[in-house]
Amino acid sequence: MTTFSIIVVLLLFAAVLFGLWQMQKKHVKFSNRVFAGLGAGIVFGGALQLLFGAQGAITTGSIEWINIVGNGYIGFLQMLIMPLIFVSIIGAFTKVEGTKNLGKISSTVLITLLGTTAIAAFIGIMSVHVFHLDGAEFVQGAVETQRIEELSERQALVEDLSLPEQITNFIPKNVFADLANTRDTSTIAVVIFSAFVGVAYLGVARKHPEQADFFKKMIDSLYEIVMRIVTLVLRLSPYGIFALMTKALATSDFKALINLGVFVIASYTAMAVMFVIHLLIISGFKVNPVTYLKKAWPVLSFAFTSRSSAGALPLNIETQTKALGVDHASANFAGTFGLSIGQNGCAGIYPAMLAAIVAPTMGMDVSSPAYILTIMAVVTISSFGVAGVGGGATFAALIVLGSLGLPVSIVGLVISVEPIIDMARTFLNVNDSIIAGVISSKTIKHFDQDILNDENAMIEADI
């Protein structure tokens, strides 16, 4: 009977996949298909939970097969991270008009990303105080216990390293190993190596323009190939999101969700406040927030549903250049750096909140200005090297908690609500990278105000 029920569930799952495919054949907008997958996953997963239970044999048996679609989609997104970073950063160097702009662009983007991360960390700490979560204890179940054990093993990779040693660990000692993503810091290592290649290109361009031109054409061709691969992978988004949401709802422990409900509300509140701060920042650079939201909404909504900054990168860059008026170099630098540096949600608010929650249990005074500044500093420095696909927030939290001498068990205790929080975190991460591109373009005075004001200059993923 169990096997028969699993087969029925999988047939229904396949029927929904077929429906999403039919929507694609009829050229329904990509964003509508993505939200259809999200909604279908919530309904289908919730139904499995109610009918068979989160740990029931039918649910676990069905999810094992459904994971092929969900985990396969995540795997393809992870496949894209290194090629995207490599070609986007080098491509940014080939598009820079003069080395003077290079310095302004890179410094402005980095200052924006890191500065907003520090602000995000402060907002996260304040959110913990407002919702009285400092010192809070969460119920620990079997899933959380298993997660804590896994995290303890992972923390062993960084716990013996001081913060300066962790920073040194970003250097790509073996770039081929980092391109294969063999280390937790491989992402930032590839960023550094790609920047070296880009700087070398500028040097060759001055002395040997013919060879540099050949290299530029090669990178442009490679960029187009990689972006085409991205398009092929993004076509899987509605199906992948449907599978991932089905798993999230079907296997969620609703008691744990209730237990962590205040934490979820506090997290979303903090990210909403930080999003408003983003809008205030661009207002200071004479960009209308309402116009900005209209132009940026397609890529932000995709980031929210896909939970992948890397997957959103092509839309991110295209939105900046074709809808907002950002120059190509600033857009590429900001979008690519935003994959691994200063993510406001994953590397700012999230680890700061966890540190503020658990610190009082270790006798720390989280209301102390000195300790708040310490958390902000550690979070900001640790925000380097956060991967653009799932797992980056966990790595950032491990480094922050380890550097502050705090237990990592809190990361495992909130695992039940990770998918829910991660949607808003990714939304905020991508928005911050777009903000950095706008500010950079404004700084070097290459921002095209006419494109921003053009109501027809909108980006809708044609996938």
From TrEMBL:
<dbReference type="InterPro" id="IPR036458">
    <property type="entry name" value="Na:dicarbo_symporter_sf"/>
</dbReference>
<feature type="transmembrane region" description="Helical">
    <location>
        <begin position="34"/>
        <end position="52"/>
    </location>
</feature>
<feature type="transmembrane region" description="Helical">
    <location>
        <begin position="370"/>
        <end position="389"/>
    </location>
</feature>
<protein>
    <recommendedName>
        <fullName>L-cystine uptake protein TcyP</fullName>
    </recommendedName>
</protein>
<dbReference type="GO" id="GO:0015293">
    <property type="term" value="F:symporter activity"/>
</dbReference>
<feature type="transmembrane region" description="Helical">
    <location>
        <begin position="225"/>
        <end position="245"/>
    </location>
</feature>
<feature type="transmembrane region" description="Helical">
    <location>
        <begin position="72"/>
        <end position="93"/>
    </location>
</feature>
<dbReference type="InterPro" id="IPR001991">
    <property type="entry name" value="Na-dicarboxylate_symporter"/>
</dbReference>
<keyword id="KW-1133">Transmembrane helix</keyword>
<dbReference type="GO" id="GO:0015184">
    <property type="term" value="F:L-cystine transmembrane transporter activity"/>
</dbReference>
<feature type="transmembrane region" description="Helical">
    <location>
        <begin position="257"/>
        <end position="285"/>
    </location>
</feature>
<dbReference type="GO" id="GO:0005886">
    <property type="term" value="C:plasma membrane"/>
</dbReference>
<keyword id="KW-0472">Membrane</keyword>
<keyword id="KW-0029">Amino-acid transport</keyword>
<feature type="transmembrane region" description="Helical">
    <location>
        <begin position="105"/>
        <end position="131"/>
    </location>
</feature>
<feature type="transmembrane region" description="Helical">
    <location>
        <begin position="6"/>
        <end position="22"/>
    </location>
</feature>
<feature type="transmembrane region" description="Helical">
    <location>
        <begin position="395"/>
        <end position="415"/>
    </location>
</feature>
<feature type="transmembrane region" description="Helical">
    <location>
        <begin position="186"/>
        <end position="204"/>
    </location>
</feature>
<dbReference type="Pfam" id="PF00375">
    <property type="entry name" value="SDF"/>
</dbReference>
<keyword id="KW-0813">Transport</keyword>
<comment type="similarity">
    <text>Belongs to the dicarboxylate/amino acid:cation symporter (DAACS) (TC 2.A.23) family.</text>
</comment>
<keyword id="KW-0812">Transmembrane</keyword>
